[in-house]
Amino acid sequence: LAMFMPLWAGVASPEQAELLVRRHLPDFMGPHGCPFTDQVYASPHPEFEHLQWSYPAAWPAFHMLLVEGLDRYGYHHEAEEVALRLLTTILDRYRETGKMWEKYHAIDGGIDIPVERYPTAPMQGWTAAAVAVLGRRLGLTQDAVA
After folding, report:
1. DSSP reduced 3-state for 143
2. Strands 57-58 and 104-105
3. Terminal-to-terminal C-alpha distance of the chain
4. Which residues pair with 104 in a beta bridge?
5. How far is CA 114 from the centre of its chain?
6. pLDDT > 70: what percent of the chain?
7. Distance (Å, rounded) from C-alpha 50 to C-alpha 80?
8. d(CA 129, CA 78)
9. Predicted confidence band at 133 (pLDDT cuts at 50, 70, 90)?
10. How far is CA 57 from each of CA 10, 14, 120, 125, rounded to the nearest angstrom?
């Protein structure tokens, strides 16, 4: 997903943005958010089997940047879809567990993700920020997300 940072920063040309969105965004659209990578990659660290920022982990902090970048270039439908998928997942897990989590499984919507260094941690500030930012983007009120 880091390839979408130029949209967030506003430095991509319209042609580059079009290529990213049309050609690459579909590879990252999981049912419950966008995993940071499009597939599982082998860890370069012999002591770890998995990569923390790899598939299928969807990181709320990066979703805020992705949504803002898509909106900046006029891809409002795609931004809304990205926001809705992750926000729905965050709120569903919150209702189920009473907690917000550091990252989510972009495919099954859970919090059980392959562990590299530590398991998924509860209540991360960026997840709370993502609820506020993505919720506002979708026009939701506090009552709607509570």
Report:
1. helix
2. antiparallel
3. 29
4. 58
5. 16
6. 96
7. 30
8. 20
9. very high
10. 25, 29, 10, 17
